[in-house]
């Protein structure tokens, strides 16, 4: 090869290596690893006050998210880095026939990655400014006042977090943030009617309250808990994913699916439930686990709309599953000022009621429509050995949280360290067994650890913006007095009747939660709705669980139903048909919160819980039988479904009349289902031996 040819090849190779994607991918990797290590080191050292730590966390998280946005613009569709051009990939459009709007979109597609990189730099600069002036902004500013630059930095931070939220979670929650700022402005507030009227504030006050007074964006609960307790668990989930936990759960699901008449259906529910508890977003969980489970369900013969609804309901319901509860457990414990274990205890029975009823409903629906799996086989327990090492970090998590009563931040630290150690030992053991333990395999161990740190940071980065945006929203509705007036209005409209107040609170919780991630929806409805319910005499934890339940259910409630929308897109089904199926499967979820308000021992455990829990559980099963229209043996007529419905409500709320009514109703439901099961068994025996006829 000639010297010029060799030089040309080397230059081309250098250009490929220095393409925008490779440069941004490297920057994202470095920043993601730094972001995760910073969080882990803070959990170990507690080197700053939490507010100061949160500011640096905010800058790193927002910058990482924007760099990742820019990186994805340049990412090739086939994953071949060598073929990446130096320009972002626009949509394939015939430029001779496009409209002016399409031209504008095409131009935006080209400049947007540059804007994202610029915003990443502004995020680091703004939070760096706050860090440099932190002592003045925290202590001296109340006497000296804010400078003009302080106010500009405050506005910049508000704009950044709202834009990051728009990109990560869509327009709904970002629009709410913008609307809250407009609502707080002096030009708007005094001109609004009735309960919405207030004096209004100029842009300097909005900048101060929204960010630069170290409130709003730096909200003590949302950003304080989000940057510590929430972050450590989200990063653990990302690290566990890099070490193969998600793949292991899905592999076990497929194997178990071979042994059940219902196939992979129930396994899809369990996998989505587990991952939904950790991710903190019903929509994100539907998108990630649904991309695996929905095709599996369809392969088994499950209808498209039903497959989408199963995944959507399971993903949404995972938000209430302890110990993480979609990160809302951490927020709830801090808001209520109670121990984290108390929140876990309060969440166990509501989660069991919901998931058991959903599991039964799906089981009956599969039997009703004949979607059973014909390829039943025995489960191979040897495959569990491949993921046995995951039991150790999960055990550490439970022991440190529940038994030792460490803070979630400390428990998360120990769990992350454990999964690094266990995961590395597992990889090293596999290499040694294959006689492949050398320098190259040692490099693979390091690469796997770095990949885990990178994944953990990338999993957390999109949530940083939404936590900060929710802080802005809460600050705006609080200091304008809207939250207090909404609670007073709900009580007034209820006329002092608890049932009416609860129904109004349910409607408000669902409406405020539409299109939002569950933790964000929970915080908003707690501020606006919960005080009115508490004033009616409902205990605090029960009230928070009540509004949280309905904020979670907003993910499957039309017209937005964000989880169903994503699930139906993956399944290729009708959105409205999938919504109907999701509401049928999730029907008990809209009644269970009223049941634990009525039967408070479901939240605050006592001797009464031993009786109340199975009785209410029987009622929820009766409710799902009525909505599905099948009892395990036959399709039910509407009169029979009405009887089941009446028995279900008596089982769940009969104690309002007499506890004997509640127990009797539960006994009737159980007896009817046992009889149905006996009929099924007889029919199966008769099919196997026709002489029984």
From TrEMBL:
Q: Where are the transmembrane segments?
A: 21-44, 50-67, 111-130, 142-162, 169-188, 222-243, 264-284, 324-344, 351-371, 383-404, 411-429, 460-482, 494-514, 520-539, 546-570, 582-603, 610-630, 642-674
Alphabetically list the UniProt keywords: Membrane, Transmembrane, Transmembrane helix
So which domain of life are we looking at? Archaea
Tell me the ranges covered by the TRAP C4-dicarboxylate transport system permease DctM subunit domain, including all copies. 159-603
| PANTHER family found in the cross-reference section | BLL3936 PROTEIN (PTHR43849)
Q: What is this protein called?
A: C4-dicarboxylate ABC transporter permease
Source species: Natronococcus pandeyae
